Amino acid sequence: MEIILISLLNGFVYGMLLFMLASGLTLIFSMMGVLNFAHAGIYMIGAYVAFEISRLVGYFPALFIAPLVCAAIGAAIEVWGLRRTHHNGHIAELLFTFGLFFIIERGVQMIWGMLPVPYRVPAVLDFPLFTLYGINFPAYRGFMLLVAAGMLLGIWLMLTRTRIGLIIQASLTHPNMVSALGHNVPRVFTIVFAGGCGLAGLAGVIGGNYQVTEPSMAAALGPIVFVVVVFGGLGSLGGCFVASIIVGMVQTFAVVVDVSLSDMLGGIGTWIGTKNLLGEILSVPVARIGPLLPYLMMVLMLLFRPRGLLGTRDT
Amino acid sequence: MTESALSLKDVRKNFGQTEIIRGVNLEVRRGERHAVIGPNGAGKTTLFNLISGRFPISGGSISLNGTEIHTLEPQRINRLGLSRSFQITSIFHRMSVFENIRCALLWSQGYRYSFWHPLWRQKALNQRAEELLAEINLLERRDLQAGLLSYAEQRSLEIGITIAGGATVILLDEPTAGMSHSETEYAVALIRRVTEGKTLVMVEHDMRVVFDLADTISVVVYGQVIASGPPAEIRANRAVQEAYLGALTE
Amino acid sequence: MSGSSSSSALGRNWLWIVVLLIAIGLPWLFYDWEKARHSGFLLTMLSQMGMMIIFALSYNMLMGQAGLLSFGHAVFFGLGGYCTIHFLNAAEAGSLPLPLEIMPLLAAFSGLGFGIVFGYMAAKQRATAFAMITMGIGELIAVAAIMFHAFFGGEGGVSANRMIERSVLGVGYGAASEVYYLILTWTVIAALLMLFLTKTPLGAMANATRDNFERAQFMGYDPRRVRFLQFALSGFFAGLGGGLYAITYEIVTFDAVAGALSANAVLMTYIGGATIFYGPILGATLITLLQSGLSLLSNAWLIYVGVLFILMVTFAPAGLAGMIEAHGPIARAGRMGRLAVPYLRLLIPGGATLLGAVGLVEIASFVTIGAAQGKSLSVFGYKIGVDDTMPWVIAFALLGVGGAWLRIEIRHFARVWEDVTADIKQRSV
Questions:
Q1: Model-level pTM?
Q2: Cα distances (Å, whole numbers) of residue C381 to C300, C366, C377, C378, C395
Q3: Record: fold of B4-249
Q4: Residue C215: its chain B contacts at CB < 8 A?
Q5: Best residue in C71, C117, C128, C307 for a mutation probing chain A (most A CBs within 10 Å)
Q6: Which residue in A154, A259, B149, C133 is a FRET match for A237, CA 20 to 30 A apart?
Q7: Using alpha carbons only, what angle is made at residue C328 by residues C324 and C329, rounded to the nearest 5 degrees?
């Protein structure tokens, strides 16, 4: 029982982190049709920049500065990079962000090295918020939830209460129409792209010391974020949210499930033996095949319901 | 009694809440040259898209030579003998003119998804492609990249691709759009020549073309056919005059 | 290529014959006659090139010819490799009495099998969903390869002995040179087969489906079926490459199915040029050269590849092959001479800009990692210290001045190019 509650909490926290990343990606993707491969790279930059700033000035300034830096980088990418490749087609844009991810990953490796950097939770937040069944729930996780919730609220307010928000909402489902109505779509694109990158940067500040800050963090989290975006569906931030929580839960819960698929299915397949692949998949504890699950979910979703959970357009 | 080549019965189409096609009844007799006209936004191209299977219909039925086609995928409809051209020129820009026509011939010549037939050695196929190119007067341009043709030449190629597969029912979507007077005359002669003996349905805005080519005219306004008959009848029809000229008749 | 059959195939493709001859003879150029030994380094690099050429060409069946962007292509390469290891082990155990030369063909058929299975899942999807599902499958297999011991051998991978003592030609394949010539043979066969495919109905319809999905439907074809077949066949050839990989290295690990290798396919194919058949050959050759050579000189060589890739995507989407072919009309009109001086004028500012950029990257790399690793950086004999500011200044200056000058020269070059092209068009009309 304890495990379930603890895992629920942890899963929720992780899910919110995923949502911070996936929301920016969904917005950019839905609006501009560009799958921003570099998104996880921006997340990584956010974490590293926050690390440096927190070393110089402190954690809380980093909370504001790092996302701004990332937003600025995003704007630069959009204006000088994406716009030029736009007329070469969607594939060219995709490849451009892909190449960017490449460069960001190597660049970070080059500047900070291959080993993790000691980006720690700030001391002021490093205490147990409460204790559940003898296990501490760190205050920092509560802080993360707070920031994520605040971000969610901020996005929701902006989308529904401001003019630019309405335009963005419309562009999510009917980008061509919005352009035909005479809005300065390129400028909106830049804002959305920069905003999405800023969100990724914020996620980096928060997530960098929750997880480990190292050059491979982008490649580790990147595909999961794509899974979330696809699973939740295009054009729907709500779907993105639900998908983030689901994926977060699945990954968190899988780690604690010590039984194997075979055990869960009542001993099915014990006669297959463990020497062949199918037998191994069935007999290995679920915790070990955990990393596979998100990808399995994405592939299955694409096979049976390409528009995702709540998507309004086909992927 | 000549069977209908194309038959639309009470066809409806909704896009979300909006009803675009509101109960269209249309009969196209075999061998007929049938023009579909109407004001902009009346739903003519949507009708074409429904017939060719691009969108599913929301109600009613569409039959080709007696077979129901409104549930079929575009390629199945094509194989049953219906072919269409597109309003926005749909040729293969990167291939040569010759290769464009050759591709259009592949299925009807029986090649299916073969990956073992070397194309350059298929004498009958290549010969037929050259014949077709001669028919649409693009033989001298055969090795040119299709994207480099003039607009009118591209439209000719479009027509060539449309008829290449030997379809008996041809749908042409605004074949003379954007053409000069002489180009239009040329296109009309070409269309008349290549659709000899076939059934032709075309959407057109140029009235000279319509009255020149068509045996039958149907007028579509706000998603419904308000009149259908020989050109003289349509010309005299009050409802049609109102729909087109509206305030001018005041 | 146009359909002209007037000149013989040999005559038109003399350049490729020369390339083939070089490929055959090159190992002997570096042969150490004293020690009676080939250069291991060269053979490894050339062998890797062969495999990557097959891999990139197979990828271009998807990207360039069918317009399908797949991010999981390494799956077929790696699974072909894994299967081959198992085939080799079975051969050694006696349960699969086949000669080594045939093993790559078996690998190809396993690749085909996987291509059919995954193709069935992927080919129905539209563009972005296709990219996503290939990425998902790729990640799935990559994670599974590290995880499971059965078939994949877990983190350590699976290994075999290629000297199975069964050969059509009576060769032992112990020596690297023997393996290289086997790879070369299969590379030529695979390339010719893939070239042939482009000139079949399926190849033509793959292009058609890429350019205009709907039009292809209205020519009687189901574009999804076309994609499916193209996908499966590309798996065939990728599997072939994987089989050669297994034979060469005698061990296959999760690296052979990893996302990094799939990414490599994209880079090689795009940089080389996706729109022209031989583009991927150029790309694979270049990237392998960079990988073998540049990686020894610089920590940051992958950054260079990334920058090259981005520059290509932005300014030269047709790749290296595209840039070469663009000279075609000018060469045929005999006006190449007019470009000689503009090219020369690009040389110095281009060189300066390159030097400046490379300098910056290298100095940055040295300052942050290299020094800590105990490496030293010296240019023209001058050792650079970690705290020196002069190198930075020089590099920035080179980049800045060179860059500005280069922009001027590029504009001049573009003008000359346009003049020549317009001139040619005028005369041909």
A1: 0.89
A2: 21, 16, 9, 6, 16
A3: Rossmann fold (3.40.50)
A4: 86, 90-92, 161
A5: C128
A6: C133
A7: 145
